Amino acid sequence: MVNDLPTEMEALHTHIWNAINADNMETATRLLRLWEASFHSLVALTIWVAEENEIPRQADGTVSDTTVEHITRCVQSTLDMHTRGILQVSPTGVANILHRSAADWHEKSSIWNDICSKTPKDFDSNLTLLEVGVVRLGDKVRVRLGRGRTLRSDFWGTVTDYLWRGFFVRDTSRNQKKLVEMLDEFDKVATRVVNEIDLLRNTWESKEWVPTDFNRLVGGPHYSPYHWAVTQGSTGVREGVVSENCFIGLAAQMGMLPYVKARVSQNPDLAMSSSTRISLLANATFGFHYHSLRRAVSRYVIQVPTFRQRLRTVKYLLHHGADPCGPIWPEDPKFTVSDQVLLLADPSDKEEEKEKVEKEKSKEEELIRGGIEEGKS
After folding, report:
1. Most CB atoms closer than 10 Å: which of 43, 101, 268, 361?
2. Distance, CA of 262 to CA of 118 (rounded, Å)
3. Neighbouring C-alpha atoms within 13 Å toward the C-beta of 109
4. Which of 120, 89, 199, 113 lies closest to 152 in space, CA to CA?
5. Pairing of strands 327-329, 332-336
6. How far, CA to CA in Å, does 80 sit from each of 89, 229, 257?
């Protein structure tokens, strides 16, 4: 379809693109790459934060409709000035290439290569969107509330929207340092948010069991039964037991090796198995989908890293003291990483979907066994 773009329309959009002056070109290319990285759903508030602007908030931390409308108008002016109308804000507040011919022009490989070549070399769209998540996590959780989902699903859906991008950040020394800093800050913000929305009580009150020895969730790089990461799944809750986890465990689930390396190098004991914790190896091996609330995670709209993509993290942990014979879950030590491979069940009841899951399960089992054997050697 792209190759069938009428010559005169292609020439028109190319003329518009070439008419953008040098002072605006870097911003234009950043915006287009952010739009592409956000799967064409780049909201005005995200652009506002990505361009290093602050969001005025009300006393309760929320953003008023008036503020959103004002920011949206400002963002539209930015798009008009820098992209000359190639990107526009729709009535719903989402930036998009509204004209179909412009979208087809943008998808041509020669145009996309030109956009990338004019982007600042140190720009990384996934790192930028993760930075936006640090600023907007609390806002986005509150926006989701009251839409027919549970509080816990709202929180973890929002966390997932941002956190998975850490895996896809380009592997450069500058980016690695920045990624570690951003993830530490993400952990701090998430810790504040979960206590503001009282996620602790919401997580366990439906199970008729609330921990009596603590009333606030914590963050940080250390294992704890009180870390906000323990609200991710339901393992052990029915039995009144909470397996310890930590933010590095979440990073391992996402295959974010630079962060795992940075924290394990500081504290090698983090890689060890324990009778009370979900080990980093179990986190990395089984991944985010397996450990998560099923309703909070949609494997069809976010690119959570597969086991093949997490394999480097698994190998690193095996080479740094992780025990492949350690238990997957403290409550059931007979299941170990090396002898039991489980995948998150597919929510579909269709037989063909079930067959697909079984095939994927077999592939993942082979990869995991191969990774463990190679890590031993």
Report:
1. 43
2. 32
3. 1
4. 199
5. antiparallel
6. 10, 42, 39
3-state DSSP percent of the chain in helix, strand and coil, to 5: 60, 5, 35
Per DSSP, the residues of 40-70 read T-EEHHHHHHHTT-PPP--TTS---HHHHHH
Per-residue tokens: 324: 């492949």
pLDDT per position as a tens digit, 140-163 = 776 655 555 567 777 888 888 889
**Cα separations in angstroms, 149 against 93, 163, 298, 372:** 23, 20, 14, 38
Q: Indicate the pTM of the whole model.
A: 0.80
State how far the Cα of 276 lies from the Cα of 225, in Å rounded to an integer.
9
Tell me if 136 sits within 8 A of 68, measured CB to CB.
Answer: no
What pLDDT sits at residue 12? 84
3-state secondary structure of 334: strand
230 and 222 in contact (C-beta within 8 Å)? Answer: no
Per cent of the chain over pLDDT 70 is 73
CA dist 53 and 68 (Å) reads 13
Place of tokens 């095939």: 359
Q: How many CB atoms lie within 10 A of CB 124?
A: 23
What is residue 329's three-state secondary structure? strand
What Rg, from alpha-carbon coordinates, does the chain have? 23
Centroid of chain to Cα 123: 18
Measured distance CA(205)–CA(111) in Å, rounded: 54
pLDDT in tens, 262-310: 999 999 999 998 888 889 998 998 888 777 765 555 544 567 788 778 8
Kind and range of the H or E element at 16? helix 7-18
Q: Which helix (H) or strand (E) holds 364?
A: helix 351-376
Chain centroid to Cα 364, Å, comes to: 22
Nearest CA among 112, 116, 129 for reference residue 179: 129
Alpha carbons 128 and 264: distance in angstroms, whole number: 25
Candidates 132, 162, 126; CA nearest to 55 is 132
